[in-house]
């Protein structure tokens, strides 16, 4: 079952309430909420207050992508908002196993994000403890970038590990995901599609429901 996770960072920042209504009508499965610290990634995006407000404003489950150094500073706060999935970067922590246990203990589904140059084998000793892996198909920080084809091989490697150790693992792809890039991502094992500027968020008059259908039809 393919899930669409709408990257709300790509929405109209002056109309987030309206964007959430449109995404509800479009039946997206998840809200992908990009939090960026301006240091681990070169952009600053979407802080705690906005996460709290948005979480109160919709029933769509949240897939938080925390692109920040020392992410453990925020786990309790984010869990307190009722966030369903919290994904941290393997490259941003010294003790990935401890961080994953902490996120799980707070009742959230723990996820690991892998940057384009990071090998899938970092998952080897924690793949059974996580609910989601996000394979970055662009360098994290900005929307509107080009898909990195080398990541298709990594998706396949993650899928092989999931088949052996974690059959229910959500395998998400994040960055320039659209009707052209979706077929190969899904064929290699992706089952969560992060929808940004190249798929759903095409402006105030875009038909989100239709665009989500196109994504799901292109698998
Ligand atoms: C980039 C973010 C992505 C991005 C997706 O760092 O993680 O979620 O917003 O946007 P597109 O689909 O335009 O690449
Ligand atoms: Zn993201």
From TrEMBL:
<dbReference type="InterPro" id="IPR013785">
    <property type="entry name" value="Aldolase_TIM"/>
</dbReference>
<feature type="binding site">
    <location>
        <position position="7"/>
    </location>
    <ligand>
        <name>substrate</name>
    </ligand>
</feature>
<feature type="binding site">
    <location>
        <position position="65"/>
    </location>
    <ligand>
        <name>substrate</name>
    </ligand>
</feature>
<keyword id="KW-0464">Manganese</keyword>
<dbReference type="GO" id="GO:0006098">
    <property type="term" value="P:pentose-phosphate shunt"/>
</dbReference>
<feature type="binding site">
    <location>
        <begin position="141"/>
        <end position="144"/>
    </location>
    <ligand>
        <name>substrate</name>
    </ligand>
</feature>
<keyword id="KW-0862">Zinc</keyword>
<keyword id="KW-0479">Metal-binding</keyword>
<dbReference type="InterPro" id="IPR011060">
    <property type="entry name" value="RibuloseP-bd_barrel"/>
</dbReference>
<dbReference type="InterPro" id="IPR000056">
    <property type="entry name" value="Ribul_P_3_epim-like"/>
</dbReference>
<feature type="binding site">
    <location>
        <position position="32"/>
    </location>
    <ligand>
        <name>a divalent metal cation</name>
    </ligand>
</feature>
<dbReference type="GO" id="GO:0005975">
    <property type="term" value="P:carbohydrate metabolic process"/>
</dbReference>
<feature type="binding site">
    <location>
        <position position="34"/>
    </location>
    <ligand>
        <name>a divalent metal cation</name>
    </ligand>
</feature>
<dbReference type="InterPro" id="IPR026019">
    <property type="entry name" value="Ribul_P_3_epim"/>
</dbReference>
<dbReference type="GO" id="GO:0046872">
    <property type="term" value="F:metal ion binding"/>
</dbReference>
<comment type="similarity">
    <text>Belongs to the ribulose-phosphate 3-epimerase family.</text>
</comment>
<dbReference type="GO" id="GO:0004750">
    <property type="term" value="F:D-ribulose-phosphate 3-epimerase activity"/>
</dbReference>
<keyword id="KW-0413">Isomerase</keyword>
<feature type="active site" description="Proton donor">
    <location>
        <position position="174"/>
    </location>
</feature>
<feature type="binding site">
    <location>
        <position position="174"/>
    </location>
    <ligand>
        <name>a divalent metal cation</name>
    </ligand>
</feature>
<dbReference type="Pfam" id="PF00834">
    <property type="entry name" value="Ribul_P_3_epim"/>
</dbReference>
<protein>
    <recommendedName>
        <fullName>Ribulose-phosphate 3-epimerase</fullName>
        <ecNumber>5.1.3.1</ecNumber>
    </recommendedName>
</protein>
<keyword id="KW-0119">Carbohydrate metabolism</keyword>
<keyword id="KW-0170">Cobalt</keyword>
<dbReference type="GO" id="GO:0005737">
    <property type="term" value="C:cytoplasm"/>
</dbReference>
<feature type="binding site">
    <location>
        <position position="65"/>
    </location>
    <ligand>
        <name>a divalent metal cation</name>
    </ligand>
</feature>
<feature type="active site" description="Proton acceptor">
    <location>
        <position position="34"/>
    </location>
</feature>
């Amino acid at each position: 079952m393919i899930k669409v996770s709408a990257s709300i960072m790509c929405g109209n920042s002056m109309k987030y309430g309206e964007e959430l209504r449109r995404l509800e009508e479009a039946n997206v499965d998840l809200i992908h909420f990009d939090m960026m610290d301006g240091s681990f990634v070169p952009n600053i995006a979407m802080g705690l207050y906005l996460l709290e407000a948005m979480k109160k404003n919709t029933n769509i489950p949240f897939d938080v992508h925390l692109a920040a150094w020392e992410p453990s500073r925020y786990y309790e706060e984010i869990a307190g908002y009722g966030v369903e999935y919290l994904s941290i970067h393997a490259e941003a922590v010294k003790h990935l196993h401890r961080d994953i246990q902490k996120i799980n203990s707070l009742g959230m589904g723990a996820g690991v994000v892998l940057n384009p140059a990071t090998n899938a084998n970092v998952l080897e000793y924690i793949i059974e403890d996580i609910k989601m892996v996000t394979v970055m198909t662009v360098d994290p920080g900005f929307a509107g970038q080009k898909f990195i084809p080398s990541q298709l091989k990594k998706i396949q490697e993650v899928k092989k590990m999931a088949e052996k150790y974690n059959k229910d693992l959500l395998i998400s792809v994040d960055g320039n995901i659209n009707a052209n890039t979706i077929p190969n991502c899904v064929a290699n094992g992706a089952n969560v599609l992060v929808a940004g500027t190249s798929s759903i968020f095409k402006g105030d008059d875009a038909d989100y429901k239709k665009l989500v259908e196109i994504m799901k039809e292109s698998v």
